[in-house]
Amino acid sequence: MSNVHEEAIKKFLSLMENVNERMKGTFQNMHHGYPTETLGRFLKARDWDVQKAYKMLIDCLEWRIQNEIDNILSKPIIPADLYRAVRDSQLIGLSGYSKEGLPVIAIGVGLSTYDKASVNYYVQSHIQMNEYRDHVVLPAATEKYGRHISTCLKVLDMTGLKLSALNQIKLLTTISTIDDLNYPEKTETYYIVNAPYIFSACWKAVKPLLQERTKRKIQVLQGCGRDELLKVMDYSSLPHFCRKEGSGSSRNSSNGSVDNCFSLDHTYHQQLYDYIKQQSTLVETGRPIKQGSVHVDFPEVDPEDAKIAETIESEFQKLADQNGICNSLNDLKVNGD
């Protein structure tokens, strides 16, 4: 770490000494014994500007207090059928670990429909997975690999990406804003696999809008990305949709749902759901667990994120228009035969 960065962290630490006890408490829940590393993440996200990073962290702590994020892991989504429906339509899971011990998070971008529950359930579930990653997954990886592990790898499967994904752009922008503002710099690399033409067209337009720091983290791989990913992880940690060429992110892989890290039957989701139910009994002893989603305040979308969302929308619109032209030409051909 350079002297400038060390100096910035010192300044940041002294500013944090002046925050109230409640904020100090939630900050402690957040940093898990690594306050300097956490401040470093917020500084990195604000290009090492101490005042901006301090404001960002204070806003994050206020968001955590107002929305009781410290207790979100004790609020299960019930009944289990509803949680299964959330899992079947918000495809995300932990497929394993990289050779360096970083958790590998798999996301089925193209086949997630987000249409089986209200938006609040999807946001709640996303935050719960973030908190479980920070409270349970990363500390366990740190212990297992004998070095501090605070970031993960994400493999984004674009199989099945369609123009109808536009319907979810608002929810996805909300989720990515929550991550940007409250869980900054937690992803080391984003690997994009099984990218159809529609993704490539959007990527061309979106790439120039991304910050250099973000751009460096994104790698678009050929096909299912298996060979490239095997350089950083073992076969057993590959997400099911990267196992063989043209495999795609089908919800049921060849070995059934146990091998499919999106499924509620996968070990990761079983452990996560059991953990939340266990925490809820500790908190709510003697009281029935409440049904209903946790309502989390959605942050205002960052202007940069809003611009990216707008660009994706307009690119999708162009593709839809082109599609429309192709379809009407096809109709003419059919009718003219």
Order of helices and strands: HHHHHEEHEHEHHEHHH
Overall morphology: globular
Strand count:
5
Helical proportion? Answer: 40-55%
The helix tally amounts to 12
Lateral strand order in the biggest sheet: 1-2-3-4-5
> Which structural class matches the secondary elements?
alpha/beta
Proportion of β residues? 5-15%
Low-confidence stretches: 246-255, 328-337
Distance between the termini: 71 Å
Average predicted confidence as pLDDT: 88
Radius of gyration: 21 Å
Can you summarize the main beta sheet?
A: 5 strands, mixed
Domain CRAL-TRIO: 79-239
InterPro entries: CRAL-TRIO_dom, CRAL-TRIO_dom_sf, CRAL/TRIO_N_dom, CRAL/TRIO_N_dom_sf
Protein name: CRAL-TRIO domain-containing protein
Question: How would you characterize the overall build of this protein?
Answer:
There is one protein chain. By secondary structure, the chain is α/β, with parallel strands linked by helices. It is built from 12 helices and 5 strands. Strand 1 and strand 2 (103-108) form a beta hairpin. It is globular and about 60 Å long. Pfam families: CRAL_TRIO, CRAL_TRIO_N.
SSE blueprint:
Elements: H1 3-16, H2 21-31, H3 35-45, H4 50-66, H5 80-89, E1 92-97, E2 103-108, H6 119-145, E3 152-157, H7 169-182, E4 187-193, H8 197-206, H9 212-215, E5 218-220, H10 226-229, H11 267-283, H12 303-336
Parallel strand pairs: 2-3, 3-4, 4-5
Antiparallel strand pairs: 1-2
Helix pairs in contact: 1-3, 1-4, 2-3, 2-4, 3-4, 6-7, 7-12, 8-12
List keywords for this structure.
single chain; alpha/beta; 5 strands; disordered C terminus
Task: Summarize this entry quickly.
The chain is an alpha/beta fold and 337 residues long. The protein has helices at 3-16, 21-31, 35-45, 50-66, 80-89, 119-145, 169-182, 197-206, 212-215, 226-229, 267-283, 303-336, and strands at 92-97, 103-108, 152-157, 187-193, 218-220.
